[in-house]
Amino acid sequence: MTTRVRFAPSPTGYLHIGSARTALFNYLFAKNTGGKFLVRVEDTDLQRSTEESLASILDGLKWLGFAPDEEIVFQSDNAEKHRQTALKLLEEGKAYRDFTPKEDRSDKNIKQDIADKARKQGDKKDMRDNPFRDLSKEESDKRAEAGEPFAIRLKVAETGKTSFEDAVYGEQERDYADIEDLVLLRSDGHPLYNLAVVCDDIEMDITHVIRGQDHLTNTHKQILIYEALGKEKPTFAHLPLILAPGGKKLSKRIHGEIVSMTTYRDAGFIADAFRNFLALLGWSAGEEQEIYSLDELVEKFSLDRINQSNATFNFDANNERRWTDDKAIWMNAEYIRTMNLDELIPLVREELRNEKLWREEYDDNEKDWFESTVDLIRERFYTLKDFSGQGRAF
RNA sequence: GACCGGUUCGUCUAGGGGUCUAGGACACCGCCCUUUCACGGCGGCAACACGGGUUCAAAUCCCGUACCGGUUACCA
Fold first, then answer.
1. In order along chain A (394 residues), what is the average pLDDT of each group of 10 residues?
2. DSSP notation for A65-101
3. How far apart are CA A297 and CA A272, in angstroms?
């Protein structure tokens, strides 16, 4: 069986550094096993999805060199199928209509609200206390026909547990009692994330789901859906998270541009160098080598060498020299001074062009001088930007 | 709160019962090279969260505590 993995970003922002690493690990795993690397855009949240962020994500993937092996799938295109699946589960009695009016949630401090509410409930919360869970089929049908809005929830069994063998974290279990009857279909008819993901992963014949550890609890919910559908589940591999200094979550709101891939490209990073750096955040080949070409990464990558603890991406917003991780900067400098000159020249040319410092003579009668100059000065530079900044003097 | 993860130098990590007075890399400091800077070479500083067990032997296995993170949505 050939392996098939997918990178599934939601187009609600640019390509986050953590997502970029998830894409990288998916890519490396696919290539290492001779499988396929696919991309699926999770655009079921139509309110928040935008064209710009989609373009920016695709741009980031391209820059890093991860070309999908098949056409990109848009999750919203499959909404009807997802809906049918929910209806089928309803028909089979594995899901039920919930007529509880939709709660209006203010977008603001939603996370906080949910946590507060959960705290108040303590451990007394009964996940099976929905009054519509055991509504008779006749009554349910009647209310639906009368036009009363409803969401469709999965009917999770009273007792039992989900379990799976995570390729990174090992054996995982969760009691049904700790999982709520999750909503499959919203009252406006739109499928929800967990349903859509499972349907699409089945549809796309995904064999390995490699994603951030923040999805660990979703995985148990998704397994419930696989079971309700009578489908075999893929292998799951959860990745440790990348955190901000101090072990806090890395977020755009708080940390700004630092978390965006485009920042690195624009700051004069070399894609190979940044990819190399990313590969070493949460994975190691167990040897002392640290500089790896893409081919070497593909060859040496394996899921069981991914480590289980979150990594801190170190930077200091108040320090110009330390604006991003020291090691990332070092690695970029290392690439600049050791890579083939033939590969470096085009990058320098592009940088100079962007800064209006390029002269056609550099490719013509001053070619030799230009190349030897680049070769000479590159060993003191950290980024491509230095060629247009400090390199000006030459 | 509940459930689930995690914890080795400042940071990324190696190590998964004896080879650990814990290895490498980045950063930092010193020396050498160099007219200067950088590169390079050599050296230094610096870590097994804590407490109990198990064992002849624990960074490594078990239990507890602490701390950190994730999740707890008709978001993804």
1. 95 93 98 98 87 94 97 96 97 96 76 79 80 93 95 96 96 95 96 97 98 96 98 98 90 85 95 97 95 97 96 89 93 96 96 92 90 93 90 63
2. T---SSPPEEGGGGHHHHHHHHHHHHHTTSEEEE-SP
3. 11
Q: How far apart, in whole angstroms, are the C-alpha atoms of residue A265 and residue A75?
A: 28
Q: How many Å does it take to go from CA A123 to C1' B71?
A: 15
Closest nt to residue A326, judged CA to C1': B26
Q: What are phi and psi of A88, to 5 degrees?
A: -65, -45
Show the tokens assigned to A280.
Answer: 């070493």
Which positions ≥6 away from A270 have C-beta within 8 Å?
A332, A335, A336, A339, A347, A384
Q: How far is the CA of A250 from the C1' of B67 (A)?
A: 19
Please name the nucleotide lying closest to A313, CA to C1': B11
Active-site entry in A62, A88, A137, A252 = A252
- Per the structure, the residue whose CA is closest to nucleotide B2 at C1' is A123
Helix and strand totals (H; E) in chain A: 15, 13
The CA–C1' separation of A223 and B27, in angstroms, is: 44
Catalytic-residue membership of A248: no
A381: the nucleotide nearest its CA (via C1') is B38
State the ipTM, two decimals: 0.94
Contact positions of strand B to protein Cβ (< 7 A): 1-8, 10-16, 23-27, 37-40, 68-76
Residue A390's Cα: distance from chain center in Å? 36
Give the phi and the psi of residue A96 in degrees, each rounded to 5.
-140, 160
Which residue gives the smallest C-alpha to C1' distance to B26?
Answer: A327
